[in-house]
What does this fold into?
Amino acid sequence: MKNILWLLFLVLGLTATKASAQMPTAQQIKWDANKEVELSMDVDSVWEIFQRPELLKRASNGYVTSVEITDPKFPVSRKITFANGASRMENVVQNERQNKLMVIEFANASLPRGIKSAEIAIFIRLQDPTTKILWKAKATGDSEAKKILIEQLTAEFESYVAGFNKMSRKVIPAVKMN
It folds into this structure.
């Protein structure tokens, strides 16, 4: 009886080990552009800025002139208009409040010539006592077109960094005491 139990334990142990060894590893995403900033703002306030078009426009530091929700049902479609007059249609395909993660895909109509797909991921992390925002972008397509798009997205990310820095330094006026 003891030998049967030992054999059963051994077979189950080997089966469990083999099953877990067959699990594929997660694919690592290679991002084409990365930008990050640490702010003296709480994580929920930063998240709220990304959720409200008028605040997102303000956070762009003048780079974006309007953010218009064109279809509020998921995936949320929106039109971003830039200071230079250009616009981009995009779809928010992931918007996770609990993980502070947002993924935005460019609509096909807004893909520059030579680009097959483009997406932006925004991660917001608590770095006690600060909040870190990470912007990441990935594009597929012609290498020259990809280079131009990544330069544009990097400039956009840098404008957001400047805008968020300004918003986080807002001074609260002191109350005059009698």
